[in-house]
Amino acid sequence: MRVRRQRLVAAGAVMSMGVALLCGCGERHAVEPRESSAGVGAAYGGLSKMLSFRYVGDSGEDETINQMLVIQNASAGSLVPVLSFSALDKKRRVLPDVKVSTVYGSDRGNLVVPQGPNFDILRFSGPGVPDVADVRVTVKSVALTRLSSGQSDMSVTT
Asked: Is 145 left (phi over 0), alpha (psi -120 to 50) or beta?
């Protein structure tokens, strides 16, 4: 019984740390908005120039995640972006009736993006969804967290 309780406590601690990371806890410093070119982040101003984007509509492999936004963070710190999206057709024209939202919250400032590659999953709704070939990403703001990037040692004892 005691071992089971210790495991539950350890699991709760790990889950709490995960929730804290996903919620973007810590001090934030906002940065001005910028818009990226379709699929790849254009760079100007503040921390937002440290982010670049690549849309993967279809991975080409069975049983893998599609509609993925790869977010590359070139800064040394963990960032919390607030992004907005425009769906584009294969001729890079905006599809105004297609609404774009995210699974992990990069459009709401709910995704902590540590240094290196990260991802969110995009959801499309409205007329024209089958015509989506790419997205245009606009960085509305970026916050720097107190969380450091990189590897850290963590141990759980039971």
From this structure: beta
**Calpha distance 84→150 (Å, rounded):** 27
Give how far Cα 118 sits from Cα of 14, 80, 89, 113, Å: 20, 12, 24, 6
Residue 53 pairs in a beta bridge with 71
| Count of beta carbons in the 10 Å neighbourhood of residue 13 | 12
| DSSP three-state, residue 58 | coil
What stretches in the chain show pLDDT beneath 70?
A: 1-45, 147-158
Q: How many CB atoms lie within 10 A of CB 125?
A: 12
In a 13 Å sphere around the CA of 32, the CA atoms on its Cβ side amount to 5
Provide the pLDDT for residue 150: 57
Measured distance CA(125)–CA(153) in Å, rounded: 41
Q: What are the structure tokens assigned to 148, written together?
A: 């450091």
Q: Give CA separation, 5 vs 12, 14, 54, 155, 156, in Å.
A: 10, 14, 44, 17, 13
